[in-house]
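Discussion board: Methods & Data

I've been asked by a reviewer to show the raw model output for two of the constructs in my manuscript, not just the figures. I'm not sure how much to include, so I'm pasting the format here to get opinions. Each protein appears as its amino acid sequence followed by a line of discrete structure tokens. Is this the kind of thing reviewers expect to see in a supplement, or should I convert it first? Here is construct A:
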Amino acid sequence: MAELIKKQYGRVVSVELRNPSEICQERNWRKEFEGFCGVMHIYQSQHKSPGKHYIVIYDIAKNYLKTGTGDLVECKNRITLTTKNSIYTFERINIERKAGN
């Protein structure tokens, strides 16, 4: 079972293959998620890959992207997750409520 570490609104900035080939670039379905916005859950694996993280981001229509497990680096409002096959970059989006809303 994984532990939910953070829950926040975010956006997929980029998805790059770690070892791209011409054929793989054409089949990189992950690229379709660039610009995808939604609720982002960051998990830390407790058993299968202890200490590794993965991210699930989904929108109101229940479309989602779930990454594999990998190494997580946070820098300001950016999160980079490096998995076996891909490098994902996410951006945190702060949503502030205004008085009366």
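Construct B, same format:
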Amino acid sequence: MLRIQQLNHLENGYFAKDLATMLEPYSIRTKTRQYRYAIVPSSDPTMRVEMTATPLQNDLESLSGAVVVIQNPHTNESKTIATLCKSHQPQTNPPAMPILSNQSQLTCLEGKEFKLN
């Protein structure tokens, strides 16, 4: 879903706010037997989108992720980067959202980190 947000930003210049509308062309549901997916309000929705996958079963890990727009200071070109954080053990609360470092990298404060750049 983070990849779909990256694609949406590339094609339209913004992140999708409505998860169901964003996923419809891909036949992906916002809720399965195992997870409920959501877009989390961001402090700057034009530059960052945050998403969660909350498990509906107690034996599954939870996930959180973000896509952000960064600019190359030398060329002024912008691009998106994405990172997914997965809890180390089963839990129903998603891990903390990844944070953007001064080096323009997204980093998970907790959980396993998966870069999607």
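Answer (T.O., handling editor elsewhere):
This is acceptable in a supplement if you add a one-line summary per construct. For B, something like: DSSP finds two helices and seven strands in the chain.
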